[in-house]
Protein: dTDP-4-dehydrorhamnose reductase
Amino acid sequence: MRILVFGQTGQVAHELQRQAKVTALSRAQADLSVPGVCAEAIAQFDGELVINAAAYTAVDRAESDEALAQRINGDAPGEMARACADLGIPFLHVSTDYVFDGSGKRARAESGKVNPINVYGRTKLAGEKAVRKAGGKTAVLRTSWVFSSHGANFVKTMLRLAETRSALTVVDDQIGGPTPAADIASALLSMGRAMAGGHPGGLYHYSGAPAASWADFAREIFAQSGQDVAVTGIPSSDYPTPAARPLNSRLDCRKLTEDFGIAPPDWRAGLTRVLDELGVMA
Ligand SMILES: NC(=O)C1=CN([C@@H]2O[C@H](COP(=O)(O)OP(=O)(O)OC[C@H]3O[C@@H](n4cnc5c(N)ncnc54)[C@H](OP(=O)(O)O)[C@@H]3O)[C@@H](O)[C@H]2O)C=CC1
Ligand SMILES: Cc1cn([C@H]2C[C@H](O)[C@@H](COP(=O)(O)OP(=O)(O)O[C@H]3O[C@@H](C)C(=O)[C@@H](O)[C@H]3O)O2)c(=O)[nH]c1=O
Ligand SMILES: [Mg+2]
Structure:
């Protein structure tokens, strides 16, 4: 199957390239901030499936860079979906738990009310809407708290901090599902193949289990890597950041299991593999 991927250096893009023979476009080859570039790349490639794994993911920076984040996260995916609809090929897009406001305690289903509380979330929601509006056969996979051995993520941040610190304060009132990028890539490839074979696509949630706080996640990182770093849980109010983050990021992932047979991965097992790749196992 001829698959085109937007994003080459990112966590999910990297895993897609490890798991399948795909053509992955770098920013130099297709800059999502430039109108027309994505449609042009899709038309030229003339493939059977397109996956967008590129995004403006710097959550705090987006607060003061909304126009660029909107262009990359909000407009470019719509352009990609329209180009795919023109060619009659399926389009897969990745979105985020940050489209929700994080109220309540329950896991949110795909039908749950969206209400982003930061610029990144608003622009990602705009992207979801633009993809849906384009028509054609599309799927949007919302995931959360992505980590891998490659690129920037919370695991890498914690390991870096452990080099100089023996104690850390980490928020314990934001609860979500850490998700290995490798599992997201594998889910996307399964969905893409099913859609090429006739599945209509749709909106889906996919995140790691069990639900955890960032402090829980940090403790597991240090336990598995055998590092003696004391983690003290703190409320988000004690860790001020430019962008607000949702408190309840739990995603109900049953629809993906029912329709595609893909169950939420245990993030602790994924973490073991990532630490192994990084050479920092206990
Ligand atoms: N990271 C996370 O925790 C989560 C991510 N997601 C979503 O998952 C998807 C994949 O995320 P992830 O793999 O973590 O992303 P990364 O942050 O690891 O990588 C982002 C990718 O997007 C590329 N990119 C950024 N700006 C542009 C541009 N103007 N033109 C072309 N490419 C660009 C980057 O290229 P370059 O190296 O050149 O900057 C990089 O390859 C995204 O849609 C994201 O919103 C959803 C939930 C959680
Ligand atoms: C480094 C550090 C962070 N934190 C907090 C800040 C924040 O609330 C939380 C996680 O920090 P991060 O900056 O990694 O989180 P963030 O970049 O907001 O992660 C998000 O990225 C986007 C792209 C998504 O789509 C989301 O699903 C989510 O993964 O941990 C601490 O409490 N102590 C620390 O020492
Ligand atoms: Mg971040």
